[in-house]
Amino acid sequence: MIILILSMIDFNSGKILSAFFNWQGLLVVLGGTFAATLINYPLGQFGCFFKSIVKIFSQETASPQLAIEQIIDLSHIAQQKGVLGLEKEIDFIDDKFLRFGITNLMIYRDEKSLRLSLEQSLNAMRMRHLTCQDVFNNMASYAPAFGMMGTVMGLIMMMTTQVAQDAVVVDGQGQDMLGALLQGMGLALVTTFYGVLFSNFLFIPTAGKLKVLSDAEVLKNQILIEGIIGLKHEESPIMLREMLMVFVNDLTKQRLDQSMH
Questions:
Q1: 3-state helix, strand and coil shares in percent for the chain, rounded to the nearest 5
Q2: Which helix H or strand E contains 148, and what residues bound it?
Q3: For the chain, how many helices (H) and strands (E)?
Q4: Which of 4, 15, 100, 180 is deepest in the core (most CB within 10 A)?
């Protein structure tokens, strides 16, 4: 951001060049991008835009180690009071998915139904995250297109207006006409600048950050699922910790192999 601002400064005068600021071009790019997104998505689904902007600045990636420690703490309680003793701990659990999982642990008697319920909740969360990422990826493709459209509109308006005004060129008016054309072309190109700027500086990085946060949360919830199943089997805290560490290592290795291929 600092480099971008510095590149807009005229070092002879020390001021930011006013050529980079045009509210009409900004309106075309942002207005067109948001309008196209609203057409593409239901209004309720578009609401994730504002939540996601807050999320990328306020939320850190989920910690697998913290998820393991939460399960181990519950395992100690279950070892002392039994699995049914975890019911009193539900209100004190901050993690929504873990709270949901322990609640389901109290409801379902068989492991298959419990795992199915937890995995369905995880898949629903993953789909919500993918939808929000898709919103920003689409906005990243819309912004440059509207930037180019604004440039074409500006060039058309500039050429038609200027030619109409200077249909008859006498004496030194040709030079004035050329200067006005160049100035108008600079203003028209600002919309392309806005389109590329918002696409590469806001929308694409936001989609990337959301993917990083989502992948970390999915991994954390997968650990919690295995931990909750271990609680149902009344595994000892030591065995449960070893089992979860092995699970994390295997899952991390699988993801690395997939990324390499």
A1: 85, 0, 15
A2: helix 111-165
A3: 10, 2
A4: 100
